[in-house]
Design a protein that fits this description.
This protein is α+β, with helices and mostly antiparallel strands. The protein has two domains: 142 residues; 127 residues, no CATH class. The strands form two sheets. Strands 6-7-10-5-11-4-3-8-9 form a nine-stranded mixed beta sheet. A two-stranded antiparallel ribbon has the order 1-2. A hairpin with a 2-residue loop joins strand 8 and strand 9. Helix 4 crosses helix 5.
Length: 284
Amino acid sequence: MTVVYLDTLFALNALMDYLLLLASARLAGEVLHRGRMALGSVLGGAYAAAVCLPGMEFLSHPLCKAGCAVLMVVVGLGATRRLLRQTVIFFLLSCAFGGGVLAIALLGGWGMSLGGGIIYSGMDLKTVLLSGAGCYVLMTLFMSRAGRHSTADSEIVPVGLQLDDRKISFTALVDTGNTLSDPVSGHGVLVAEWDSVAGLIPELMLEDLTDPARGFARLNAGRWKGRFRLLPYRSVGVECGMLLAIRPDAVRIGGRQCRHMLVALSPTAVSDGGGYRALVGDRF
């Protein structure tokens, strides 16, 4: 008979779920909202503990498991138009992550129970933390190599932005066809999906991007005065358009600090579902 300690069960599954959400967000190129991911992981840990309570056996039904997993993704990563892709990535990483932790537990002689799809091990909490961190590091290294799928013309790179005390991160595609530049300084411009940058500017709304002139007049005042610019651009089907752009305090692309770079805000997606949220020319 296996004795299950609910506190250990909760901690183990919450830790695994947090690392899974973090890895899924990085692989999908999502903005990292660590508070939301922590809440999603707590939900996963609570579900794992609830399955073991008397009278709650119905929660181990496959539909309940799938529903809980989707709810974790929605809470941790946000209910965006990429929900299906996020969920698929989360499930695939769960399989890889579970296999890695299981291998560590078996090699260490602790054993591991996967009854009802719930992870439980006799490992002490310190070993659990080290094992989970080790699996996350290995998966991150693997994904960073796989994610930088370079060809002669494209490469996926990490992007970090800071404005005042707010920081966000996502991924961008290095696109040699992106020649958009700041007409004043001549520096290249990062073109990002507006909702990926919304975490920096709580007041930003989609209507500001569909009517850039009105958005500029509304936002370029008060605390944001001098932060915004209007950038002219040309593309297929658009002879002379305008994009609203912002100048963050710091822009880091591919590990390199890019001073004086503007971030143009696109009202539409810049990818077809790929793992990036922005485009940048090869001159950054």
